[in-house]
């Protein structure tokens, strides 16, 4: 029996970036620069796209605001101005060609109203066309601890189990307020988990009483890493939440639909052998600038 191949990926990038204001008054946060291991300055969105392509994906949809489309189109699908191109080194001219090839694999989908992460994902329903897909946060970049990228680690597990797979990481109680947290039972100790429950930004009391995982210290929990491989069934649950106006803190979230997917269809968690770097808040973006190029 042939294995299901994950061909498509989604990157929601339609937020306002309010936590990085006033810089986001003039530049979308997805285009803030980071330095990679090769010393190349690149926008965050490119690092995320490259991460997904490393897993063998053929197409990527980026969910954006209508007003941001010229910026995204210009970067991924347009050559630099001739004056700039003429000043580039031969290496950077080759890199321009590389960007054009990446651009051929990218589709832009407009989120007309910014109503949360879950709503942004739902905007790609028709484009996904009833296929499994790889989903990434739009403000995280990733670095594997092995030769296999973080995204490819998830794809390889998905091809073995052919079930919904989400990346996990161990976090301390101090950052529960910014995390989706899971509980469940180990299939493979400290590696593969059968998830029983997901919870968006629990309190310490909620996490300790309902989400603690055997083998972890009392003050540590398993949180969502920011990479997911999901069946198109997730759109049914997202659609129900949108239709019924079920919001969390005013927005449609992914985590609540994930919990429904978990209860009805099953959800496997994988502790990714790698690190994620959050770029969505000033203090974390500063840390990413320092640490990302070192790994």
Secondary-structure content class:
alpha/beta
CATH architecture: Alpha-Beta Complex
Work out the count of structural domains. Answer: 1
**Main pleated-sheet profile:** 5 strands, mixed, barrel
Series of H and E elements: EEEHEHHHEHHEEHEEEHEHHEEH
Q: Unreliable stretches, pLDDT < 50, 5 or more residues?
A: none
Number of helices: 11
Shape: globular
Radius of gyration computed on alpha carbons: 19 Å
Tell me, what is the CATH class? Alpha Beta
Catalytic activity: alpha-D-glucose 1-phosphate + UTP + H(+) = UDP-alpha-D-glucose + diphosphate
GO molecular function: UTP:glucose-1-phosphate uridylyltransferase activity
Keywords: Nucleotidyltransferase, Transferase
EC number: 2.7.7.9
Overview of the structural elements:
This protein has helices at 44-53, 69-77, 82-87, 90-103, 117-122, 125-128, 150-161, 204-210, 234-243, 254-265, 282-291, and strands at residues 8-12, 33-35, 41-43, 59-64, 106-110, 133-136, 140-144, 165-172, 180-188, 192-200, 220-230, 268-271, 274-278. A five-stranded mixed beta barrel has the order 8-11-9-10-12. Strands 2-3 form a two-stranded antiparallel sheet. The chain starts with 7 loop residues before the first strand and ends with a helix. A hairpin with a 5-residue loop joins strand 2 and strand 3. It is α/β, with parallel strands linked by helices and 295 residues long. Helices cover 34% and strands 26% of the residues. The protein has eleven helices and 13 strands. Helix 2 packs across helix 4 (90-103) and helix 9 packs across helix 10 (254-265). The radius of gyration is 19 Å and the shape is globular. The chain has one domain (8-294): Spore Coat Polysaccharide Biosynthesis Protein SpsA, Chain A. The model has no long low-confidence stretch (mean pLDDT 93). The longest helix is centred in the first third of the chain and has 14 residues, at 90-103. Belongs to the UDPGP type 2 family. It catalyses: alpha-D-glucose 1-phosphate + UTP + H(+) = UDP-alpha-D-glucose + diphosphate. It holds the Pfam family NTP_transferase.
